[in-house]
Amino acid sequence: MSVIYSKVKMSNNIFEACKLVRNFIGIPIGEIKNRIQKGEVLLECNYLDLEELIKMRTLLESLETLGAQIYLYEGDYEVSMEFLSNTIESYKGIAEDR
């Protein structure tokens, strides 16, 4: 299974970020805070799951508005938010063609 995952770096608004992330992954806020502070993988989802990719993009955009730096990976390669958006739009196009 191909996975897309992200790491988040931020120094301000960590508590607000933790609350947003908690709604997405359902782990304790303390664990989320530790992952952010240590630069560990914070979010991951199946690269082929359109709904999860959309949720991930929405959450990452919200974190960016709080001042987060987003590091996004597909497999071993760092990718951009634009890559994520393009992937989502491609999957939407495929779904419409069916």
TrEMBL record:
Protein's UniProt name: Uncharacterized protein
Source organism per entry reads: Streptococcus salivarius
Q: What is the lineage of its organism?
A: Bacteria, Bacillati, Bacillota, Bacilli, Lactobacillales
